[in-house]
């Protein structure tokens, strides 16, 4: 009968769409996002300029998921240049194919569409995403990435009344393409024009320093309530001191690790770093309060304009914020203050993270080190007449064919597994030199900053343990100062100028993983490498296969099919089987009607 047949079709489409919304993994829920990446004209500092927006938003939307969720992000590139989105701090377990950096992914060309599919396996915490190519992050394209605990895993504090994402970062009024030209010409980027908070300029706290008409960010809160503030430094190269007038910042989490909870009046947040603070609205509501992010480790009187100012507004506030900003740390002649503050950030060994067992049950301090690398940076050097940035005397050259794709399809000559354990002697070199990591090895990396600027370093694929930092040159005797019990596990660490930071990392995640400076200028000029971690066992399941929708470039560009260009999310094999089962079921019902 026609009516019965229609009912069957309705049933079919109902189940089809239900499955489509849950296709990635039958066991774990999925979260779907569509990102349209475009240029937008904005004036965050009063000067019209081209910024990168996602779905018309600057910054972009926050991804909010739960441990073990499958995340599907369909990205349409409407820029006029190649694009990759990197999920900073998301470990991409067994799947460096989804990491969104040039060593692992072919870029998404203009007008093309590509879908990221990955699981946030065994992770919690506060992260962010950004465009990883060609200084694009200096134009925006950033957004928060929250991974919540599963309901069965308690968080080590009372549930906050609200969750607030705050993006801070230095900002230039020149387009990112102009910044690139400056670097290509061997110039420095110079002093930024300001600091943005969630894509907006400073509140007009000073009529001389802040012009009229600047749009600023305001956070509305209820008196007496506690909020979780997830603060990310998404800027170009400037460390920022974050503080809220008359309020304490109770540190609770950093990049996926719960910390020992302690109060700070302010905290230095370096480029690429993320922190969660619990802030209780316990002040009187006679006026609003300043939220400040100001430049650190610079001539602060000359850099006064490089200050972001937002407003904390109680719902019963009786007036506007007024008076001078809360001061930054008074440590001009005390270079140890910030470092001691960093050392005070400790791992909460008794709290559960993504799993029920306490974080401290992984006793990193008792594991034997299998590989040691001393990575030294220096001020820029000339290589073949061009200004380049180096690690251990090597400036990384991105291959036209991604490293792991070259492995899988046996493309020779793409890279060399010859990155040295110690800095090279002699003139610097520009090449595609990769660290040969040992699967299930335990690597010690010493980051030695012989530059005059602060740097922060990020490792994809892992959380590493920050076990020590100090001024001067690292030596074997420095190990005597290591924290082997509750050093914070995180993905991005600072290295002070003229100082070193030591990290330990367990190489249990197969893939090719980017190790880089987060300072965009130095990264653009080659201060990075990759750690290649391969399981030598045959037919193992420690790495996922090449995605069905993988893009191909370089030596493999002939494998790219034109019909793949605008493909959306590719259905997994399991999904196809399930959909086919429902098709058989529905059409079997039709004769009954």
UniProtKB/TrEMBL annotation:
Residues 1-26 form the signal peptide. Pfam families: Cu-oxidase (PF00394), Cu-oxidase_2 (PF07731), Cu-oxidase_3 (PF07732). Keywords: Glycoprotein, Signal. The keyword Thylakoid does not apply. InterPro entries: Cu-oxidase-like_N (IPR011707), Cu-oxidase_2nd (IPR001117), Cu-oxidase_C (IPR011706), Cu-oxidase_fam (IPR045087), Cupredoxin (IPR008972). Residues 37-150, 163-316, 401-537 form the Plastocyanin-like domain. It comes from the Eukaryota. Gene3D superfamilies: Cupredoxins - blue copper proteins (2.60.40.420). PANTHER family: MONOCOPPER OXIDASE-LIKE PROTEIN SKU5, MULTI-COPPER OXIDASE. Belongs to the multicopper oxidase family. This is Monocopper oxidase-like protein sku5. It comes from Stylosanthes scabra.
């Amino acid at each position: 009968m026609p009516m019965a047949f229609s009912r069957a079709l309705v049933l079919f489409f109902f189940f089809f769409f239900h499955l489509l919304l849950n296709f990635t993994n039958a066991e774990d829920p999925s979260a779907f996002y569509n990102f349209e990446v475009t240029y937008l004209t904005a004036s965050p500092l009063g000067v019209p300029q081209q910024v990168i927006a996602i779905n018309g938003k600057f910054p972009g939307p926050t991804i909010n998921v739960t441990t073990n969720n499958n995340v599907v992000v369909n990205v349409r590139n409407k820029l006029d240049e190649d694009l990759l989105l990197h999920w900073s701090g998301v470990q991409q377990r067994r799947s460096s194919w989804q990491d969104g950096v040039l060593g692992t992914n072919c870029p998404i060309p203009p007008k093309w569409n590509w879908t990221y599919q990955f699981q946030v396996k065994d992770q919690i915490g506060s992260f962010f995403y950004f465009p990883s190519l060609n200084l694009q992050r200096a134009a925006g394209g950033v957004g928060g990435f929250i991974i919540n605990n599963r309901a069965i895993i308690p968080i080590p504090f009372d549930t906050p009344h609200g969750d607030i994402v705050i993006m801070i970062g230095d900002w230039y009024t020149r387009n990112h393409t102009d910044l690139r030209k400056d670097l290509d010409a061997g110039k420095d980027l110079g002093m930024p024009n300001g600091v943005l908070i969630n894509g907006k300029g400073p509140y007009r706290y000073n009529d001389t320093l802040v012009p009229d008409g600047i749009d600023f960010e305001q956070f509305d809160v209820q008196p007496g309530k506690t909020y979780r503030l997830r603060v990310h430094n998404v800027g170009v190269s400037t460390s920022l001191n974050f503080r809220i007038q008359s309020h304490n910042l109770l540190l609770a989490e950093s990049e996926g690790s719960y910390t020992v909870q302690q109060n700070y009046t302010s905290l230095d947040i370096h480029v690429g770093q993320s922190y969660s603070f619990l802030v209780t609205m316990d002040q009187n509501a006679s006026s609003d309060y300043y939220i400040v992010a100001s430049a650190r480790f610079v001539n602060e009187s000359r850099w006064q304009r490089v200050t972001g100012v937002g407003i904390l507004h109680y719902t019963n506030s009786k007036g506007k914020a007024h008076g001078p900003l809360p001061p930054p740390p008074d440590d001009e002649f005390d270079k140890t203050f910030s470092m001691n503050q960093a050392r005070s950030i400790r791992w909460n060994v008794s709290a559960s993270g993504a799993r029920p067992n306490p974080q401290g049950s992984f006793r990193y301090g008792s594991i034997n080190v299998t590989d040691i690398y001393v990575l030294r940076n220096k001020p820029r050097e000339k290589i073949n007449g061009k200004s380049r940035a180096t690690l251990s005397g090597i400036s990384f050259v991105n291959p036209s064919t991604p490293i792991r794709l070259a492995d899988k399809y046996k493309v020779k000559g793409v890279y060399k597994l010859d990155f040295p354990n110690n800095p090279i002697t002699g003139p610097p070199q520009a090449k595609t030199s990769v660290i040969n990591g040992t699967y299930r090895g335990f690597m010690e990396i010493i980051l030695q900053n012989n530059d005059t600027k602060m740097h922060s370093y990020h490792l994809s694929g892992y959380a590493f343990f920050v076990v020590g930092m100090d001024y001067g040159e690292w030596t074997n005797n420095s190990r005597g100062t290591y924290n082997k019990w509750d050093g914070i596990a995180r993905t991005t660490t600072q290295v002070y100028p003229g100082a070193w930071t030591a990290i330990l990392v367990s190489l249990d995640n197969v893939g090719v993983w980017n190790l880089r400076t987060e300072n965009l200028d130095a990264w653009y000029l080659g201060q990075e490498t990759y750690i290649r971690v391969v399981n030598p066992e045959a037919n193992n399941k420690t790495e996922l296969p090449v995605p069905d929708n993988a893009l191909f470039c370089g030596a493999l560009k002939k494998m790219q099919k034109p019909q793949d260009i605008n493909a959306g999310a590719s259905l997994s094999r399991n999904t196809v089987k399930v959909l086919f089962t429902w098709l058989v079921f529905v059409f079997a019902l039709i004769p009954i009607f």
